[in-house]
Design a protein that fits this description.
Helices cover about 35% and strands about 30% of the residues. It is α+β, with helices and mostly antiparallel strands. The longest helix is centred in the N-terminal third of the chain and has 57 residues.
Length: about 160
């Protein structure tokens, strides 16, 4: 007749407890990973908006108006090249058609009047509380003075 000894019963109980703890730990790890993946997926549109805004402002101060992308950088004829982060003393408005995320673009000198090149009112579905907007500032030189190039980018 087969009887379970006391040692066998304790070993079986210990093994069962270890398996339950292993399964619960694995379940908690999977729950954490799934919540992390859901959070990352929900943050992706905001990341795209930030990336496009930063790249747009960067391109504005590194290109001049003669290139295919609209730019504000001054062309140095002595060096035969565009000087990035340096704008001519009287910068002209860049061509901003085709940039639907751009809400506002301003040049604010530290000493002098502000220049506003784009200012779209938030209307329609973009005026809802769910609209996400980011403002980016870029330090540039206008002539010999420092100024901030401020761009506001909104989704929708």
């Amino acid at each position: 007749m087969n009887t379970t000894s006391e040692r066998g019963l304790l070993f079986s109980t210990d093994l069962l407890l270890a398996v339950v703890i292993l399964l619960l730990t694995s379940l908690a790890g999977l729950a954490f990973l799934s919540s992390l993946a859901l959070h990352s997926a929900s943050a992706l549109p905001a990341y795209r908006l930030q990336r496009q805004g930063l790249f747009f402002l960067d391109a504005l101060v590194k290109n001049d108006a003669s290139q295919s992308f609209p730019g504000l950088a001054a062309f140095d004829s002595g060096l035969h090249r565009v000087t990035p982060n340096f704008l001519s003393p009287a910068p002209t408005a860049p061509e901003l058609q085709g940039f639907p995320l751009l809400q506002s673009l301003r040049l604010v000198p530290f000493n002098g009047p502000e220049t506003q090149w784009a200012d779209k009112p938030l209307t329609g579905p973009a005026n809802q509380a769910s609209t996400t907007c980011y403002s980016f500032e870029r330090l540039v030189l206008v002539g010999k003075e420092k100024a901030l190039l401020i761009g506001v980018f909104c989704d929708g």
